Amino acid sequence: MDRIIIEDLQVYAHHGVAQEEKRMGQMFFVSLRIGMDLEKAAANDTIDSTLNYADLCDDVQRVMQSAKYDLIETAAMRIIEYLFQAYVVIQEIHIILKKPWAPMGHHLQYAAVDLERKRGDRNVW
């Protein structure tokens, strides 16, 4: 499967269990591996045969900022759902959603969730 990769897109959003996280917000990092057929794009060399990476990033940012979730698991699943609905050419999505400043009382690089779904999976809402 061919893939488009977006690595560590920075999005400021308001997710977390603590009310301060929802009030103040924080930076999140979103990485995507989008599985789709890129043969036509490579042959035609036109943007119409693939996804526009800037539009994809705008969509992810919009989903991340459209609501305030307790869990990054929910935010990641909402991104998956939106992308499958918006782009019928996408066959697989692998997302890693990192929360580098999670208030956990421990020094760590980040907390994250890692979800992978294929179009048609039963557990995609």
Task: Report on this structure.
The protein has a four-stranded antiparallel β-sheet with strand order 1-2-3-4. With 125 residues, it is an alpha+beta fold. The two termini are 23 Å apart. It has four helices and four strands, in the order βαβαααββ.
List the keywords.
125 residues; alpha+beta; GTP Cyclohydrolase I, domain 2; four-stranded antiparallel β-sheet
Largest sheet: 4 strands, antiparallel
Order of helices and strands: EHEHHHEE
Q: Assign the CATH class.
A: Alpha Beta
Average pLDDT confidence is 94
Helix content: 25-40%
The CATH fourth-level homologous superfamily? GTP cyclohydrolase I, C-terminal domain/NADPH-dependent 7-cyano-7-deazaguanine reductase, N-terminal domain
The oligomerization state is single chain
- The name of the CATH topology is GTP Cyclohydrolase I, domain 2
Domains, number:
1
Spatial order of the strands in the main sheet? 1-2-3-4
What is the CA-atom radius of gyration, in angstroms?
A: 15 Å
Structural class: alpha+beta
Low confidence ranges = none
State the shape.
Answer: elongated
From the N-terminal CA to the C-terminal CA, the straight-line distance is 23 Å
Number of helices: 4
- The CATH architecture category equals 2-Layer Sandwich
**DSSP, total strands:** 4
Strand content: 25-35%
Task: Briefly summarize what is shown.
The protein is α+β, with helices and mostly antiparallel strands and 125 residues long.
Topology:
Layout: E1 3-13, H1 19-24, E2 26-35, H2 39-44, H3 53-65, H4 72-86, E3 92-99, E4 111-118
